[in-house]
């Protein structure tokens, strides 16, 4: 099968846009990049067609095993492909937990035959209970790309210290969700005027800020590498910026949806807006944008957390946290974008995640197996519930009008292409 990407701009790793070219992919391998129009079986074209190295999501929960009623690997990877991702870091919060060689292999053994490459994150503590360490070396050898307790924050300073020391010996990164649980415990919304008016128990910003401060102190003491997942506060951004300026080996990400809404959105008690960390204030959002622009925030993730109706159609206090995000992450950022170039957005989806995880960046060169995301950065489209590929539908973006849409992904000599944009060659 020969597939032609017609008149496409290459968004490359050096943050520059090349001239429009035609890229021919034959049986999953890039065979031509030129101004010529080679013969092909199918053609992908769109007015603002762009291509980059395949995007990688550093934070997705795929449900299986243990939570197949919320998501399965089949539905989750289809959602990832539709969202432009070719590789997905799988959170360890499954049943069983990703905490040994066999559970790591449950994911990695699928990769040779799958369009989407699964990258398991190994748990730091047994059963993600925060007390006893797992055999991280064994999981690292089996293919775990990093270590953390996923949705659950590591709050035991001794555990964090020992993990940083241990992982520094094998060159792996600790990924921690910064949240001091003794402060945020049982909170459901950002602590502030709005939570008080709504009668909702608050999650104060200081819960994140204290956790970041503690972990940075431990990092400074031990060395190693730490990545903060899903930061949400203005002060959190400032603390990480200062740590980077001091030379500490620290990186961080935000969930794409975190910049879309502030805490006022909870006035209708719609549980699709119940996320952890919670939607914060307008000031927090402004600082997140600044952090994205100046490089303090390295990565944008989907924070994909599918929840079935039984988990969401409850009183706000009782409903589970989380939204699905694999299919909308890029479009959210691109639509609401205030100050990023398209190259900077792609860097946070494709380049920095791989640098942090120690993975090679796919090259857009003749002879290379195609690991590509093809997208139109200007296309407007409506996100409809019937279009959702995830098994769960817990999204606050249903009926939202987006700008920017992934059209195709190529990986492992396979592809998924939006049929609307395929034309049969003549």
Verbal overview:
The protein is α/β, with parallel strands linked by helices. 28% of the residues lie in helices and 23% in strands. It contains 12 helices and 19 strands. Helix 2 packs parallel to helix 3. The longest helix has 18 residues, at 205-222. The model has no long low-confidence stretch (mean pLDDT 96).
User: Helix segment count?
Assistant: 12
Gyration radius, rounded? 21 Å
Mean pLDDT: 96
CATH topology term of the largest domain:
TIM Barrel
Task: Write the CATH homologous superfamily of the largest domain.
Answer: Metal-dependent hydrolases
Low-pLDDT residue intervals, each spanning 5 or more residues: none
**In the residues, how many domains can be counted?**
2
Shape: globular
Classify the helix fraction into a percent range: 25-40%
Strand content: 15-25%
Structural class: alpha/beta
In short, what is this structure?
The chain has 426 residues and is α/β, with parallel strands linked by helices.
């Amino acid at each position: 099968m020969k597939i032609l990407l017609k008149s496409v701009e290459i968004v490359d790793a050096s943050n520059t846009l090349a001239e429009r070219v035609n890229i021919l992919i034959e049986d999953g391998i890039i065979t031509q990049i030129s101004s010529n129009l080679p013969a092909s079986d199918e053609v992908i074209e769109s007015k603002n067609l762009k291509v980059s190295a395949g995007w990688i999501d550093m934070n997705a929960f795929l449900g299986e095993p243990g939570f197949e009623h919320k998501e399965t690997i089949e539905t989750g990877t289809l959602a990832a492909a539709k969202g432009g991702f070719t590789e997905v870091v799988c959170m360890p919060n499954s049943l069983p937990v990703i905490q040994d060689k066999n559970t790591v292999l449950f994911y990695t053994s699928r990769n040779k035959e799958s369009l989407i490459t699964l990258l398991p994150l190994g748990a730091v503590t047994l059963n993600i209970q925060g007390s006893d360490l797992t055999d991280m070396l064994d999981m690292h050898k089996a293919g775990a790309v990093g270590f953390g307790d996923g949705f659950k924050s590591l709050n035991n300073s001794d555990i964090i210290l020992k993990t940083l020391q241990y992982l520094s010996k094998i060159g792996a990164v600790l990924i921690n969700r910064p949240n001091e649980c003794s402060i945020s415990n049982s909170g459901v919304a950002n602590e502030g005027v709005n939570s008080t008016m709504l009668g909702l128990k608050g999650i104060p910003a200081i819960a994140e800020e204290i956790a970041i401060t503690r972990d940075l102190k431990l990092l400074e003491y031990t060395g190693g590498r730490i990545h903060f997942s899903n930061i949400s506060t203005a002060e959190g951004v400032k603390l990480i910026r200062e740590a980077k300026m001091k030379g500490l080996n620290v990186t961080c990400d935000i969930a794409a949806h975190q910049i879309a809404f502030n805490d006022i959105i909870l006035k209708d008690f719609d549980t699709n807006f119940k996320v952890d960390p919670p939607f914060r204030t307008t000031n927090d959002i402004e600082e997140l944008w600044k952090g994205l622009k100046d490089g303090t925030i390295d990565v944008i993730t989907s924070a994909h957390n599918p929840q079935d109706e039984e988990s969401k159609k409850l009183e706000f206090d009782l409903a589970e946290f989380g939204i699905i995000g694999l299919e909308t992450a890029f479009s959210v950022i691109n639509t609401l974008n205030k100050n990023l170039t398209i190259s900077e957005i792609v860097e946070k989806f494709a380049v920095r995640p791989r640098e942090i995880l120690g993975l090679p960046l796919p090259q857009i060169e003749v002879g290379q197996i195609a690991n590509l995301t093809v997208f139109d950065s200007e296309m407007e489209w409506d996100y409809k519930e019937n279009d959702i590929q995830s098994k769960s539908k817990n999204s606050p973006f249903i009926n939202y009008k987006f700008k920017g849409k992934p059209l195709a992904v190529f990986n492992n000599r396979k592809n998924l292409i939006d049929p609307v944009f395929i034309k049969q060659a003549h």
